[in-house]
């Protein structure tokens, strides 16, 4: 597993965008914020840059020539966990959901504020670091070790994205209580506003990894009119 930087100031961010103006502006703002920035203008170059210097986070344009951002994200995730913020020039919900479905941790729709993007980068990196002094959580055959950023189901390691891990850890900390999507966005994502479909997609992905039958979830239950509740059942 690739190792991530311990401090925001030393974190390496890979910016992948075929628009040189966008890439230059984003890289400039990240550089001034103290990040080490690598750039790529297409998918193959992005994969090469990542292999040379594994990034702590990737800012990835969805619409790339040849190999699109979705495929780049899939291939990177095949080599190791890495937080991804997806950029899309279109506000279409299907595009946003596609990015989330392949494991993007966040997305920003163009045109966007570079300052907002830097704040998103800071937020994702901050939540990706191992929690110090946090004890292991366990319920219903699931075990989450926040300090090691490791989760297992019946002893088998789960391949979770950053947000999926945080979501599972939150549920294990608060069993039996119903939370709305707004609550989960605030508590897990750390945002006071945002597209609530982000939460919906991550719940669906997490169910696919922890439920025996994701179509009939037993652990992460839907509470109609409220949101979701984690029900570990009897140990």
Task: Set down the secondary structure blueprint.
Elements: E1 12-16, H1 20-32, E2 36-40, H2 43-52, E3 57-61, H3 69-79, E4 84-88, H4 93-101, E5 106-109, H5 114-128, E6 137-139, E7 142-145, E8 150-153, E9 156-157, H6 162-173, E10 178-179, H7 181-189, H8 197-210, E11 220-223, E12 227-230
Parallel strand pairs: 1-2, 1-3, 3-4, 4-5
Antiparallel strand pairs: 6-7, 7-8, 8-9, 10-12, 11-12
Q: Which class of secondary structure composition applies to the elements?
A: alpha/beta
Which outline best applies?
A: globular
- Indicate the proportion of strand residues: 15-25%
Q: What is the total tally of β strands?
A: 12
List the total number of helices. Answer: 8
Radius of gyration, whole Å:
18 Å
| H/E element sequence | EHEHEHEHEHEEEEHEHHEE
Please bin the fraction of helical residues.
25-40%
Describe this structure in words.
- The chain has 235 residues and is an alpha/beta fold.
- The protein is 40% helix and 20% strand.
- It has eight helices and twelve strands.
- The strands form three sheets. A five-stranded parallel beta sheet has the order 2-1-3-4-5, sandwiched between helices. Strands 6-7-8-9 form a four-stranded antiparallel beta sheet, with helices on one face. The chain has a three-stranded antiparallel beta sheet with strand order 10-12-11.
- Helix 3 links the parallel strand 3 (57-61) and strand 4 (84-88).
- The two termini are 32 Å apart.
